[in-house]
């Protein structure tokens, strides 16, 4: 690897994994607020718009669940990769002192 440098910012990788969880949690919170507001209106909303909303909500819930699984996997992957590289870096460093 002539002229190449390997650098890992472990703090940034950990922050990325944490931020993914935090931001998706916020999105879940907003989705829940919307559902509660629509539920409060449901008794007075019997038009075609209500049925269309319910269909859209089912699709949103499906997509949201899929995105949740993918982002959880991404966050876990980032955390594991960071931990593995830190361990590898430390092991390489120790190999020069023994």
Based on Cα principal axes, name the global outline. Answer: rod-shaped
Given helix and strand content, the structural type is mainly alpha
Radius of gyration: 22 Å
Question: What's the count of strands?
Answer: 0
Distance between the termini: 25 Å
How is the main sheet built?
A: none
Number of helices: 2
The helix content, as a percent range, equals: over 70%
Could you tell me the mean pLDDT?
87
Percent of residues in beta strands?
under 5%
Number of domains: 1
What is the element string, with H for helices and E for strands?
HH
Pfam family, one: WXG100
InterPro entries: ESAT-6-like_sf (IPR036689), T7SS_ESAT-6-like (IPR010310)
Protein name: ESAT-6-like protein
Family: Belongs to the WXG100 family.
What can you see in these coordinates?
With 98 residues, the protein is an all-alpha fold. It has one domain (17-86). Helices cover 82% and strands 0% of the residues. The protein has two helices and no strands. It has helices at 10-41, 48-95. Helix 1 packs antiparallel against helix 2. The protein is rod-shaped, with a radius of gyration of 22 Å. The two termini are 25 Å apart.
């Amino acid at each position: 690897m002539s002229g190449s440098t390997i650098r890992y910012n472990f703090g940034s990788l950990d922050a990325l994994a944490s931020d993914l969880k935090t931001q998706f949690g916020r999105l879940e919170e907003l989705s829940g607020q919307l559902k509660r507001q629509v539920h409060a209106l449901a008794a007075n909303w019997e038009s075609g718009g209500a049925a269309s909303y319910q269909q859209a909500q089912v699709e949103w819930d499906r997509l949201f669940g899929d995105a949740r699984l993918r982002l959880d996997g991404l966050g876990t992957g980032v955390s594991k990769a960071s931990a593995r590289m830190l361990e590898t870096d430390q092991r390489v460093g120790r190999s020069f002192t023994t």
